[in-house]
Amino acid sequence: MPVLFLYPRLAYTEPMRRHLPALPLLIFLLSLPAAANTLYKCTDSAGTVLYTNQQTSKRDCTVLSHMQGAPAASGTAAAGKVATASKPRAASTPTPGDFPRVSGNEQKARDTDRRAILEKELANEMQNLDKAKKTATEAGQPPEKLQPLRDTVALHERNITALKKELGNLR
């Protein structure tokens, strides 16, 4: 930065000098509080451009941006009470009456089917892992073929981990 003040002709090009007066305005606009929801670009009768968060009838204003109110930070005081961290609330829209429902027995049957499918997939992945390990450890494999085989082994191991996790998440 000292160079900018010591050698202004070297530091600024002509286009930069033209836009330099707008720099304080830009800094000001960036520091506006979040409560200023709408930003206007207003031009008065003399052609002067003004950026503001207040629209007046004396100027020709266009909306540059409109921000929705920011959510309150958790743990802040509001109306004398401290907000506490809680579980996210369910959607405030109730379920429609004609929404399809599944009986308890049907849901249990679906869960049982899902568990059976996951267990079958786990057994297949374990077999594929054993085959991949045997292929990777066979003698006489060329070095350029070893890395893809190791990658295959790692893939099957990740799949097994994911399937075990999914089975653990079932009710």
Radius of gyration: 32 Å
For the sheet with most strands, the description reads:
3 strands, antiparallel
What structural category do the secondary elements indicate?
A: alpha+beta
Pattern of helices and strands: HHHHEEEEEHH
First CA to last CA: what distance?
63 Å
Count of structural domains: 3
Spans of at least 5 consecutive residues whose pLDDT stays below 50 are 1-8, 71-84
Helix content: 40-55%
- The helix tally amounts to 6
Overall pLDDT, averaged?
74
Number of strands: 5
Shape: elongated
Q: How are the strands of the largest sheet arranged?
A: 2-1-3
Question: Approximately how much beta-strand content do the residues carry?
Answer: 5-15%
SSE map:
Layout: H1 2-6, H2 8-11, H3 14-19, H4 22-30, E1 38-43, E2 49-52, E3 60-66, E4 77-78, E5 81-82, H5 104-137, H6 143-169
Antiparallel strand pairs: 1-2, 1-3, 4-5
Helix pairs in contact: 5-6
